[in-house]
Structure prediction request, 503 residues.
Amino acid sequence: MAARGQDIASVIRRQIEGFDQDLSVVDEGTVTGVGDGVAQVHGLSGVAYTELLEFEGGTTGMALNLEEDSVGVVIMGDTRTIKEGSTVRGTGRIVETPVGEGLLGRVVDALGTPIDGKGPVDSSENRPVEIVAPDVSTRKSVDTPVQTGIKAIDTMIPIGRGQRELIIGDRSTGKSAIALDAIINQKGGDLVCIYVAIGQKAGKVAQTLGMLEQFGAMEHTIIVAANASDPAPMQYLAPYTGTAMAEYFMDQGKDALIVYDDLTKHAWAYREMSLLLRRPPGREAYPGDVFYLHSRLLERSAKMDDAHGGGSITALPIIETQGGDVSAYVPTNVISITDGQIYLETELFNSGIRPAVNAGLSVSRVGGAAQTRAIRSVAGSLRLDLAQYRELVTFAQFGTSDLDVATRNQLERGQRATELLKQGLNVPQPMEQQAVVMFALVNGFMDDVEIAKIGSFEQAFHSFMDSNHPEILKTVADEKQFSDETESALKAAIEEFKTSVPF
Prediction:
């Protein structure tokens, strides 16, 4: 018996010595209340702010309110499986998203999960969706243009790489169209594009995807979609997720363009979450940190200096106004954060001036630094002509019979400039085409063309230049300026065109 007892003891001893099972501590809590997409949880003592939590049944949540005796969690999925008494586990992971080249051409949700039915994303790196923006010492001034292909913007309201340019206007004035044309214009270029759709109908996002695929723009584009049917936390996260993806490319020394469509719905989603979490409401029921909501997002757009890779993120946030009221709370917040705004006006849109850019209220605080010399040399005269035209047009409506010749000429030049800046949807123009046609306008070669025929003149002129003088276009594209020789050759080409194609 004694020997048998020793055998049992030795077996137990060997098992104890060989026992090396890893122990993991899981932070676990209990749901004390749930409703309207928000859960109050007791017991998660070690949870971090914006940590991902897992509810019983697999639904994901995010910790936002860290209070003394409870945690306020916003639910990022189906709430029907969550009940009072359900267990909640901390994952130890702050909200993060996959990043990398493998995301190009894909449509993902606010957590970076693919929703386009093309299988898993090819990505080996994850990044937190929120980081601190680069400080001033690592940035440099904006000096390289983002060519949108839209004449009215590239000439008068230039956008530079690393800039934040707000697109603002009422509903259905062409805000998204400008951003999407800018994305389409990057085909074959070196600019990676990210389009963040916030609170849009799934059908509209599918339409946008189809259009970008039609023009071959999805090869350099990622779509991050938080649809209107998605929970408010997903709409809140989407812009930060898109920015994290853009930062990957910026850190590689590349240039990225990100469109937030739109930040009005983003603010609405944050207001909804905040009110449900019982945070104190402020002006227009928004929480007190709604300015910080957008400032910490847009400050991440930057042009890095050469010592930090030289990459950039250019942001095009979109804000929808009500009745043209740019002095409302969220519009004024975003105006004060950005480096200029493109203001689209309903009256201009309805009168057939598209893009409906109000050149008086629109501004770029980077200015000529974000333009090629060729465009800058013609843009100054163009903006002056339009400014003078706007001043005079009010008086002209009382009748032009008593106006002197110089004033009448200014009015007509302004009308021609307005007509020339009209542009169709999804037909962005390369820089050299914009430069030569604007050169023709500001140097008076269109002064004898009927205003109704300006559009036809432009189309015929581009066809003529492509067929007969491609070397001039190539020189302007390569040198990005008008040398004396190029200017003389271009004037001769315009004269030749006007002789052979009478207007």
Q: What stands out?
A: Residues 373-396 form the longest helix (24 residues).
